[in-house]
Amino acid sequence: MHRLSLARRLGTATLLAALVATTAACGSEDDKATDASSGDSASSQETQEAAQAGDLEELTADEFYPSVMSALQDAETMSFSITTGGDSGESDIAGVMRYDEDGVDMQAASDGEQAMEMVMLDQILYISGEGMGLPEGKKWVKVDMNDPDNPLAMLGKSTDPSAMFAAMEAPKKFELIGTEEVDGVATNHYNVVMDTAAYIKAMEMPAQMTSLMPKEIGMEMWLDAENRPVKFRQEVEIPSMTGSGEPTTSTTEGNYSDFGDDVEIEAPPADEVSDKGLGMG
Question: Which of 13, 31, 68, 263 has its CA 20 to 30 A from that of 238?
């Protein structure tokens, strides 16, 4: 049971990291009002047409972080589908995200070896799936993302983009690979390489985790004419725990769409929720 619970914890961490690392919005800035007038609709249509026509502007390394964050904040919502694969198998996750001044809300479901449902709302994460170690009659485990005593508490930093993207603000390497079409949308294809030690420090993770990861973390991102991430891909090679074995490779690829659409994210019924599970006592 302990081994299964640990696998669930790591699987959840991987999925959430993949999600938030590429879609977090700046919650520390002032709110931006959304105007659904016909004028805004026309402007949005013009921007979309410009993107499809290939009207793209190349970003510099310094412009990349603030431009993507601003674009996501303006969008406020999106749909996503992400596939993560490696030596332990493949997992697909799909759902919706919403941003406001308090951070990120999310509703998603995954399949594969670690099939589960997840809801993140108001800094609380709810997880449902087989092998959660839940009390009888409960379907969801509740995780306070700001509880320092919770084994998943470090994921709470993922909703703070000022920490999450600190390493991306000053990447070690940055390049525009080229212009490509993704699902009918013209995009700029970038490669961004971050320093792992800076990433670990920014996320306030244990410093010893640096030795378990490569020295650099690279990410490819495809941005549309509004600098929104339409697609991302990340391949990470994890060194052997023993130091003598072969490294393992994990690949994560995701697509984003339906920017600005209305989404509904609700917490599960209170009588189905427990704060005990996932090996947390």
Answer: 68
Neighbours of 229 (CB within 10 A): 23
pLDDT digit string, tens, across residues 85-134? 876 677 888 999 887 767 788 898 988 766 889 898 988 889 888 777 78
Cβ atoms of residues 190 and 177 within 8 Å = yes
3-state secondary structure 203-237: CCCCHHHHHHCCCEEEEEEEECCCCCEEEEEEEEE
- Residue 185 DSSP one-character state: E
Q: Are 237 and 214 in contact (CB under 8 A)?
A: yes
Distance (Å, whole) CA 238 – CA 84: 14
Residues facing residue 251 across a β-bridge = 85, 235
Name the H helices within 53-188. 61-75, 161-164, 166-169
Instruction: Please answer whether residues 160 and 168 qualify as being in contact, where contact means their C-beta atoms are separated by less than 8 angstroms.
Output: no
pTM: 0.73
Q: Hey, how many other C-beta atoms are within 10 angstroms of the C-beta on 48?
A: 15
What secondary structure does DSSP assign to 88-124, as a single string? TEEEEEEEEEEEETTEEEEEEEE-GGG-EEEEEETTE
